[in-house]
Design brief:
By secondary structure, this protein is an alpha/beta fold. Helix content is 47%, strand content 12%. Helix 9 links the parallel strand 6 and strand 7. Helix 1 packs across helix 4 and helix 5 runs parallel beside helix 10.
Length: 234
């Protein structure tokens, strides 16, 4: 049985965890690829979850072959994505408010560690009505290597001023779980578009259906002593 002896900080992914953005990206990337004469399958898109945008674009080009017009794809999809968000909106994931309320009540700081770049993070959070809710944000363009490398989670812990071993990560992607493991940080997995493989589920501290269950888990355990430091049984 895995146990977390202490939780002094939470580090959360953004896309697919805090905001319901992944279906929007999938729609826009698939439609843009189709306009260029290529079929981007759901399976291919799901394999990109957690990657930085440049890494994900490069993987699409690799899978689609040497004829794929990567430069054109990179020009076309961002304004389409922005227009989609501006016209149809962006929503927070279910359970987010309860999740944040638990952390605030127990004075546990939270950092966002996302593969999106800083400009996209600001736009996305504002579109979801979350502007200003996360003072500590590490974006994918602020670290040397994206997920599954551990850089972004180690930097988030550093900015919180908390040892990585005293943090817990909340993620939705295989790449994010692997990055947390590489950083030596336990992780809660909340699958979004893709169910976890057995290997990813095994290295996750817990697999939960939504932030609501994550909030309940943290409330139950942090509340035992009324302060950070309680254990979390798996």
């Amino acid at each position: 049985m895995k146990r977390l002896p202490q939780i002094h900080g939470v580090i959360s992914d953004m896309d697919g965890v805090l905001i319901d953005s992944e279906p929007i990206y999938r729609i826009v990337w698939q439609s843009t690829a189709a306009d260029l004469g290529y079929h981007l399958t759901d399976e291919l898109y799901s394999s990109l979850l957690g990657f930085t945008i440049p890494d994900a674009e490069a993987e699409v080009a690799r899978v689609c072959g040497p004829g794929f017009p990567l430069a054109q794809f990179r020009v076309l999809w961002p304004p389409r994505w922005k227009l989609h968000v501006e016209t149809q909106g962006m929503t927070a994931k279910p359970g987010l408010e309860n999740f944040l309320a638990v952390l605030e009540r127990h004075q546990v700081p939270v950092a966002v560690a996302t593969s999106s770049d800083a400009e996209t993070v600001a736009f996305s959070l504002q579109a979801a009505g979350l502007n200003g809710r996360f003072p500590c944000i590490v974006s994918g363009d602020q670290v040397a290597q994206g997920k599954p490398a551990p850089d972004i989670f180690l930097e988030a812990a550093r900015r919180l001023g908390i040892s990585p071993q005293l943090c817990i990560v909340v993620e939705d992607s295989d790449a994010g779980i692997l990055a947390a493991a590489a950083a030596g940080i336990s992780a809660i997995l909340i699958p979004d578009l893709k169910p976890p493989s057995p290997d990813i589920a095994e290295i996750s501290f817990r697999v939960l259906p939504s932030l609501q269950e994550a909030a309940e888990l943290l409330e139950e355990n942090l509340g035992r002593k009324g302060k950070p430091g309680s254990s979390l049984p798996k």
